[in-house]
Amino acid sequence: MTTLQPLQEGYHKTEDGKWEIIANHELPGVTPEMIDWWWDHIDTTERYKLWHPTDHVSFEWVVSPATNGHVGAVQRIEEFLNGIPATPLPLEIRWEDANEAKAEYDHVLLATVVGEPRGDLMHEYQATPFGARMRSHFHLAAEAPEEIVNALYEHNKQEMHNFTTFLPDLYRSQVRG
């Protein structure tokens, strides 16, 4: 009998039938502090679209982290996933207590996603000599179509890569003014 190794990249169905997606990212020039700042300062649709100009449609805080802190913040977004489906997905993302996460890296964003596809996510990341290394985890319901699962994987790879194109300059202009 062989022991299954944990998935390190890609997506598959777990023993309980749910989808697991893991994507690894190398982010040269982006620090964990920049990413930490980003989560609390997306703030506008215009800024949200910087992260993925073709898939991101709208952004608004339902519960701002400025109001009650990071845990419990809720954002309402509309986005495509790698260009699908035909109309953007309306989602609400609620940030959870990262102390509950089973993370390997030093910095963690843990969240629950309400909408279709329903699920949870964790972005964990740490400093490296070149910037940051990130691993994104998603868990979706078993009934999520594989087309959506694959599209989410590709979308995540694209948006995290996009951090390298705008986040260092944005962070410096906003934090160090």
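That was protein one. Protein two is written in the same sequence-then-structure order:
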Amino acid sequence: MKKITLLLTLLFLFSSCDITQSTASGIENQAFLSFFGTKSMYPNGVEVVLDDKTRFNAQVYKNRSKIKHVRIYGISTGKHKITVSSNGKILYEKVIFLTSQQTKKIILL
């Protein structure tokens, strides 16, 4: 009888223990850059250098609020040195700090 009671008690205890699996989801750890200026001055876009390592070409858009589809460029969050140039001329050079989901609007003159 004691064995049956012990067995039932253990069965009850182990069946009531649930293995809980939790998942964490949230916003991505990414920031964004967009480039605005006089588009006719940069018909082929501009060259962007990120932290003296990563290079990419970016499109430049007119600086208006009615533009619906602006291409944004995803980068990691944190402190970055950004250099923007066109035809060998440096247009923008700055160290910035970006947080998660922040979009930095870079205006070129």
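The chain has one domain: 27-107. Keep this in mind for the problem set.
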